[in-house]
Design goal:
about 25% strand, alpha/beta, 3-stranded mixed β-sheet, 12 strands, 6 helices, Rossmann fold
């Protein structure tokens, strides 16, 4: 394998972060399917001991422990939402991981309630972003400029407001990856 092929392989490797319980299955399945169709390899990370469980019972095994994430192995990171992601809002390890992806100019994205993780990591300070409307106060409190929109792209940060924006969100990630 040549160095160029290796770099392309890493650029097209996307890490999806799932909460161990109550992740949004539509956001997960739609984003995963569109990214895979676009040529990406998907890896799942969580703090779940075995399986992550969606709000409707879908079980997904994670590939990588949160403790073993190396941002150099991926082209981007996607935080999937759902009510379970609120347990991650103040997770210092996830804040550190998000900052590392952002600092390396890799795609750092979140949908639904998950943009609050990026905001609490300090990545959305004075940046226009969106999230699930019920959580907008959390974004504003962390210094983000909340905008009621389905998807917002600012530099290498992509935020979306929920399951209905999943397709547009995934397409925005692909566009950014291919630019």
């Amino acid at each position: 394998m040549t160095f160029t092929n290796y770099k392309t392989m890493i650029a097209k490797s996307i890490l999806l972060i799932l909460p161990k319980k109550n992740f949004n299955e539509i956001e997960f399945l739609t984003t995963k399917q569109i990214l895979e169709k676009g040529g990406c390899t998907i890896f799942i990370a969580s703090d779940a001991a075995c399986f992550c469980e969606g709000k409707n019972g879908l079980k997904i095994k994670s590939d990588v422990s949160l403790l073993n994430i190396n941002e150099n192995s991926f082209g981007g990171i996607v935080f999937i939402g759902g009510s379970g992601v609120k347990e991650y809002w103040h997770n210092q390890l996830l804040h550190k991981i998000a900052r590392k992806f952002f600092e390396k100019k890799k795609i750092t994205s979140a949908i639904c309630s998950a943009p609050v993780i990026l905001a609490n990591a300090g990545l959305l300070k004075n940046i226009t972003a969106t999230c699930f409307p019920d959580d907008k106060g959390e974004l504003i409190k962390a210094g983000a400029e909340y905008k009621d929109a389905s998807v917002i792209v600012r530099k290498n940060i992509i935020t979306a407001n929920g399951a209905s924006a999943s397709e547009e969100f995934a397409e925005a990630i692909l566009t950014k990856l291919n630019s």
